[in-house]
Fold each of these.
Amino acid sequence: QVQLVESGGGLVQPGGSLKLSCAASGTIFSINTMGWYRQTPGKPRELVATISSRGTTNYADSVKARFTISRDNTKTAVYLQMNSLNPEDTAVYYCNLETTKVRTYTYWGQGTQVTVSS
């Protein structure tokens, strides 16, 4: 029932910027954590950044000082501002939502391709 719709991926030159957006819909418990993960061929999916409904953030070491995660609790949306992109950031980026109400539920978006290349 919960759906995550992503947008903002694309091709960008090294040193450039992109902003990813993800909007959640459906029956969602208000206390939740949303975030972004990324995956490249042959590698497991890895955490990029998360943000709780109260604004607590966590970042992977590789993106600290370059990426900023934010959210809009009214719309249950999450954003990822990516600056100073490099080819190592190339991956499929997935939106994630995790919520706990008696049990923990995890939801994923379809993924959006980010390619950093000259």
Note: The chain has a mean pLDDT of 95.
Amino acid sequence: QVQLAESGGGLVQPGGSLRLSCAASISMFNIYGMNWYRQAPGNERELVASITTGGTPTYADAVKGRFIISRDNAKNTVYLQMNSLKPEDTAVYYCNRDSQIYVLKDSSWGQGTQVTVSS
């Protein structure tokens, strides 16, 4: 069973918006903080946003003020609302648990969802 399934990506013009979803088929979802990451071709994976078990968000400077992370524990789902998108936001976006145990395991990652910002 796929543990993390990202969706919602696509092609959008600069200044547009997308809403990404991460469906987490994992036990005890409520006890994990969750992160969104992104990786562009040739670049290392970077942390975009985090949300604690209690719903407190943090953001990378590059997306602060434009992106909003949220979670719905009843649905085992994490969201990333992406506004005012820029071409440099183009990347494959992934979610994962905010735990090194899972970040360091290749099998814990989903397939990601492609976000392309272009005119």
Note: The chain has a mean pLDDT of 95.
Amino acid sequence: QVRLVESGGGLVQAGGSLRLSCAAPGSFFKINAMGWYRQAPGKQREFVAAITSDSTATYADSVKGRFTISRDNAENTASLQMDSLKPEDTAVYYCNAVGTVAARPFGSWGQGTQVTVSS
């Protein structure tokens, strides 16, 4: 019921930056938290960052100090600013949102966006 639209992926060299965006069009739901996960070829999907409605942010140890997550509650969007990118950051990045629709909990995933960091 809740659609997430991702954008901002691409190809950059090591040390460069990218900014990912995730939007949830509509106003019939309440989002409590949004976050990002990533999955590299041959690896399991892993947590990257998340942010709650009160702007409390959590990061995986591998991206602390390099990535910053932010949120615009009014527009139900979340952004992930990725700086000092490393080849190890190469993966498909998926947006995630959790909340309620008519008082029922939900969890949604975006379509994924490719991030490739060359050495």
Note: The mean pLDDT is 95.
Amino acid sequence: QVQLVEPGGGLVQAGGSLRLSCSASGGRFSNYAMGWFRQAPGKEREFVAVINRSGSIIRYADSVKGRFTISRENARTTVYLQMNSLKEEDTAVYYCAADLRYSDGYSTEGIKYDVWGRGTQVTVSS
């Protein structure tokens, strides 16, 4: 019913920037908190950023704070992740996810999210 599509990541040199997008179809996008998660090779999935349905609450993992920016355009049913000052450690598959609980809150826990995108590869080279 609700589907998330991530057009694609890419390759970027350390210190560079990349912008990810995630478009939603079905449901009511403006009612959902949206999150970004990532999974590096051989590691567990980890929280990156979340924005609540109204955009009034934003949280970041400490590892990306000050470098990444999450935003949303409800009219376009799209959430973005602007990644600056990229490091090799940022290399991972990045996933967007939707929390369908219809509240104005948020969660940094992946188990709270109901719908996930297929993921997009981001590779940062030195």
Note: The chain has a mean pLDDT of 96.
